[in-house]
């Protein structure tokens, strides 16, 4: 089965405006650049649309003086702050390409990305910032206004690369995902429609801006809508609640870990989250139990979505004002098609489990410099996700697991997510991760790592008994390890490869 929510996106029209934007343009500020409405703020800056646009042009003129032009790559290695967003748009003004670099990277990690991307210049936080030998501009030295009479050339074409987003590299060296201007505009327009954003909306940006989720959902979508965004500092539950109370945002996008941290906080009777229309959860599956806790605790509608960097962020999402099916990631977003296929690529009917494939204007142009890997991932226009799932009769997608995370125990295929779902039903379980651990007899056996709520206690025996009541014996973990926290990769997903590397099961297990 394939869900088909195709819509025409040859142009996008702003609310209350007759101006039409063709997909060939990434100039999100075209309608708002003279406006004095709030645009972007962080802990140090507060910019209107006109002030933001002036800073974009100013840094674009500075990049131009450094020889940056069409097709050149600008590496941006900054923590979340307004200047990072300025830098992205400034590169696009020149038809250049931006590659955001994780500011927590070691010099070796940063140099790898800068070299692999072929960056011509780096924007960083100081003279000692990694630059792989490229020219380096200090963020404090960014030009904030263009010289008199400054002009820029043609807008970028729709198929020109805008962003190089590097994957987390859990299965090898990180790869640069090439996202075009058409990819980005399509995604922002899709989310603007799906989330029903208007100029009165306000996004609280808390996810890292070296990841496509924050760029697409929390930056480009509100900018396209004429809304505003506030960039929070380093995330903490206390800071989050303070920002909600003082800034009064209408939505935010987060990962399951953040929602788990929020509901694990002591009750705050004075907490006011009434400004929030909804929250978005993505990047990794969230349990129905955790979603219920969030919605009951804060009175907040949370819509779970699903997508890949290779698909420009999102391909499915539950509606905010339509039928939400907890445990699913919703139907395909408008303009995309989601299908389930078998090992030979044949489309499967509703209810059948297979690999999730995606088609639409959101599919990446390819992996930079890796044509063979691109050809294996995008086949006949379909993005092979490596995720296992099933579609119901209404087109809602349920994720079963990652193909690479599947555990083969004595020849039987086990899906860790099914075991994780059973564990999540226990009232003490905040988060859990199930991995396949090596075993002399069975090849692999499931082992679970569990984090409990701060105010709840449990034991391995109690959890094993809980799971045994819900799953067949072969699916019950061989061991349950209670831990204070689960390891994360740079974008906040649970680092299962890391767990597998450091775990071993005794030979007599």
Structure description:
- The protein has 509 residues and is an alpha/beta fold.
- Among the domains are: 47-154, Rossmann fold; 406-502, GMP Synthetase, Chain A, domain 3 (2-Layer Sandwich).
- 26% of the residues lie in helices and 25% in strands.
- The protein contains twelve helices and 28 strands.
- It has helices at residues 49-65, 82-93, 107-117, 181-194, 212-225, 237-247, 256-263, 288-298, 371-377, 416-424, 460-468, 496-502; strands at 2-4, 12-13, 20-21, 38-41, 46-48, 73-76, 97-100, 121-124, 136-138, 161-166, 176-180, 202-205, 228-231, 251-254, 278-281, 302-306, 316-317, 337-341, 354-359, 366-367, 378-379, 382-391, 397-402, 407-409, 412-414, 429-439, 443-452, 479-482.
- Helix 1 (49-65) crosses helix 2, helix 4 (181-194) packs across helix 5 and helix 7 (256-263) crosses helix 8.
- The chain is globular, with a radius of gyration of 23 Å.
């Amino acid at each position: 089965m394939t869900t088909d929510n195709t819509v025409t996106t040859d142009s996008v029209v702003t609310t209350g405006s007759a101006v039409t934007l063709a997909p060939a343009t990434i100039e999100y500020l075209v309608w708002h650049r003279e406006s004095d409405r709030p645009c972007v703020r962080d802990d140090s800056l507060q910019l209107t649309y006109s002030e933001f646009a002036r800073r974009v042009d100013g840094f674009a003129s500075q990049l131009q003086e450094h020889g940056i032009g069409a097709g050149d790559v600008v590496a941006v290695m900054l923590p979340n702050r307004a200047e990072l967003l300025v830098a992205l748009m400034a590169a696009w003004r020149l038809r250049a390409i931006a590659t955001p670099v994780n500011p927590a990277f070691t010099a070796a990690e940063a140099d790898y990305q800068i070299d692999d991307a072929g960056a011509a210049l780096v924007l960083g936080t100081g003279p000692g910032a990694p630059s792989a030998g490229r020219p380096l501009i200090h963020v404090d030295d960014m030009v904030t206004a263009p010289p008199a009479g400054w002009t820029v050339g043609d807008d970028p074409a729709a198929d020109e690369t805008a962003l190089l987003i590097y994957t987390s590299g859990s299965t090898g060296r990180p790869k640069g995902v090439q996202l075009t201007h058409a990819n980005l505009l399509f995604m922002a327009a899709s989310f603007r429609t799906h989330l029903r954003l208007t100029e009165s909306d306000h996004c609280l940006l808390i996810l890292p801006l070296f990841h496509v989720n924050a760029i697409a959902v929390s930056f480009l979508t509100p900018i396209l809508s004429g809304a505003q965004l506030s960039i929070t500092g380093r995330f903490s539950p206390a800071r989050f609640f303070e920002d909600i109370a003082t800034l009064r945002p209408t939505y935010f996008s987060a990962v399951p870990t953040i929602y788990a941290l929020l509901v694990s906080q002591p009750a705050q009777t004075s907490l006011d989250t009434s400004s929030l229309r909804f929250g978005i959860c993505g990047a990794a599956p969230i349990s129905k139990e955790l979603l219920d806790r969030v919605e009951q605790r804060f009175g907040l509608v949370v819509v779970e979505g699903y997508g890949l960097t290779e698909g420009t962020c999102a391909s499915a999402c539950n509606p905010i004002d339509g039928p939400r099916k907890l445990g699913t990631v919703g139907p395909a977003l408008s303009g995309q098609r989601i299908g389930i296929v078998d090992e030979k690529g044949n489309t499967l009917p509703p209810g059948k489990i297979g690999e999730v494939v995606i088609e639409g204007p959101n599919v990446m142009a390819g992996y930079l410099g890796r044509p063979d890997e691109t050809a294996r991932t995008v086949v006949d226009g379909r993005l092979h996700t490596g995720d296992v799932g099933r579609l119901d009769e209404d087109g809602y997608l349920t994720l079963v697991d990652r193909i690479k995370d599947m555990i083969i125990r004595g020849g039987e295929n086990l899906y860790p997510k099914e075991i994780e779902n059973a564990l999540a039903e226990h009232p003490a379980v905040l988060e859990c991760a199930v991995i396949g651990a090596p075993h002399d007899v069975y090849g692999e056996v499931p082992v679970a790592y569990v984090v409990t709520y701060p105010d709840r206690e449990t034991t391995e025996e109690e959890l094993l008994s809980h799971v045994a009541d819900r799953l067949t014996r072969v699916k019950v973990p061989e061991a349950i390890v209670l831990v204070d926290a689960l390891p994360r990769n740079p974008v906040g997903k649970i680092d299962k490869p890391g767990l597998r590397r450091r775990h071993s099961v005794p030979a007599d297990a």
